[in-house]
């Protein structure tokens, strides 16, 4: 059925992968009554798929243009994105963004700007590409307690891990393939170092639990130090290594967040999430477990999420942040531990690392794939030494859930609750 409303006039800021994807999707759905009337880009010299006269180079002009009904911001500069989006919200504008780093750093300010000036900001495309996780949390689970929200939030690192498992290849060659396929950036640090999924976990925390987290305080460990030996050792146990971002409600009612590689078995729905796909597991108090799976990256999947936000803005949708009024306390690292697998090819370096992490040297193990260590490690120690671990290429993965330090790894659920 054809849309009888007046066309919605859109100003698009950015025409990279997501911007082009959104443009393509809109062009293929003329019945929706959307018109991209202005496009602002940074560089006048970059080759593009549209004629040069379709572009302008002053994004501020779009934010100030009263003829535009909605602004879509999809640039990769977090600081510039915040400047443009905050300026638009101060004008009471309706805005959709896909910039997860900007949102993670500035979400409290952006929420306040909406309240002060009456604008609206939606950002489904910022987390997990085509998966509608933000609206699911904000609307469907707005008043239901959640035990956990966890998942694979980064398709680039997941692609690398999949290819290493399929071919037995090393990290460098798998990363090069991901870059050649367009699944990883030329500078892969944000993805492979787990900074990108950390930003997404911080955004989800506002909707799942009503808490605003400082991303710098959330532990994130990446896969830069991973080797074929780690993949093979996991496979020998019937497991896979995945980068899992998790928000967890602790037995004491507080909320924690952590992003690390994790060994997973077939019982986890994340075990089968491969290549550039993402997956999110919700554990709701009353509704039980839920699993969402879809493409986490790419122009058209992410452009589809932007389109959903634009249509929602036309309908007047706003995020509710219903859980802010009853937000729990946060416990990010203090008095928390995780069961860890630690490896470095140099045994001398590995022994030194064990002292940093306060692990007994007796934790060292040797098998056909080399030497490694396992044991319970305090999150505070991992947080304190994470820069050095990354610099040295130490690979750390969790082998179990995050738990209070006073709770033994093998304690039953009832016993755990009694100990905290």
TrEMBL record:
It is an enzyme of class 1 (oxidoreductase). Its EC number is 1.1.1.3. Pfam families: Homoserine_dh, NAD_binding_3. GO terms for molecular function: homoserine dehydrogenase activity. It comes from the Bacteria. Pathway: Amino-acid biosynthesis; L-threonine biosynthesis; L-threonine from L-aspartate: step 3/5; Amino-acid biosynthesis; L-methionine biosynthesis via de novo pathway; L-homoserine from L-aspartate: step 3/3. Residues 14-124 form the Aspartate/homoserine dehydrogenase NAD-binding domain. Residues 132-311 form the Homoserine dehydrogenase catalytic domain. Keywords: Amino-acid biosynthesis, Methionine biosynthesis, Oxidoreductase, Threonine biosynthesis. Belongs to the homoserine dehydrogenase family. This is Homoserine dehydrogenase.
């Amino acid at each position: 059925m054809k849309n009888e409303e007046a066309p919605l006039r859109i100003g698009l800021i950015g025409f990279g992968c997501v911007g082009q994807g959104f443009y393509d999707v809109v062009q293929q759905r003329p019945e929706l009554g959307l018109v991209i009337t202005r496009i602002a880009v940074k560089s006048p010299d970059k080759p593009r798929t549209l004629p040069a006269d379709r572009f302008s180079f002053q994004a501020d002009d779009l934010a100030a243009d009263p003829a535009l009904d909605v602004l879509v911001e999809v640039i990769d500069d977090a600081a510039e994105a915040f400047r443009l989006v905050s300026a638009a919200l101060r004008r009471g504008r309706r805005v959709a963004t896909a910039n997860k780093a900007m949102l993670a750093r500035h979400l409290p300010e952006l929420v306040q700007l909406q309240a002060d000036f009456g604008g609206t900001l939606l950002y489904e495309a910022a987390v997990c590409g085509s998966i509608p996780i933000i609206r699911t949390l904000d609307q469907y689970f707005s008043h239901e307690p959640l035990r956990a929200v966890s998942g694979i939030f980064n398709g680039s690192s997941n692609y690398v891990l999949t290819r290493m498992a399929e071919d037995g290849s090393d990290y460098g060659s798998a990363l090069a393939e991901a870059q050649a396929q367009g699944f990883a950036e030329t500078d892969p640090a944000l993805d492979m170092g787990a900074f990108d999924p950390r930003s997404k976990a911080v955004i989800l925390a506002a909707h799942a639990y009503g808490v605003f987290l400082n991303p710098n305080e959330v532990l994130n460990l990446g896969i830069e130090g991973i080797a074929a030996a780690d993949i093979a050792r996991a496979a020998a146990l019937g497991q896979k290594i995945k980068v899992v971002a998790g928000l967890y409600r602790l037995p004491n009612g507080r909320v924690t967040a952590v992003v690390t590689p994790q060994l997973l078995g077939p019982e986890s729905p994340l075990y089968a999430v491969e290549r550039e796909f993402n997956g999110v597991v919700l554990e709701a108090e009353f509704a039980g477990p839920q699993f969402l799976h879809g493409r986490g990256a790419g122009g058209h999947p992410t452009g589809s999420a932007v389109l959903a936000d634009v249509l929602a803005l036309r309908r007047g949708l706003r995020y509710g942040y219903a859980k802010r009024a009853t937000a729990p306390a946060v416990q990010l690292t203090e008095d928390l531990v995780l069961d860890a697998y630690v490896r470095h090819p140099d045994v001398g370096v590995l022994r030194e690392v064990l002292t940093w992490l306060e692990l007994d040297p007796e934790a060292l193990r040797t098998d056909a794939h080399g030497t490694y260590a396992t044991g319970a490690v305090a999150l505070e120690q991992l947080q304190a030494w994470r820069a050095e671990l990354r610099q040295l290429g130490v690979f750390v993965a969790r082998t179990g859930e995050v738990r209070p330090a006073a709770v033994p790894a093998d304690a039953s659920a009832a016993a755990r609750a009694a100990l905290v």
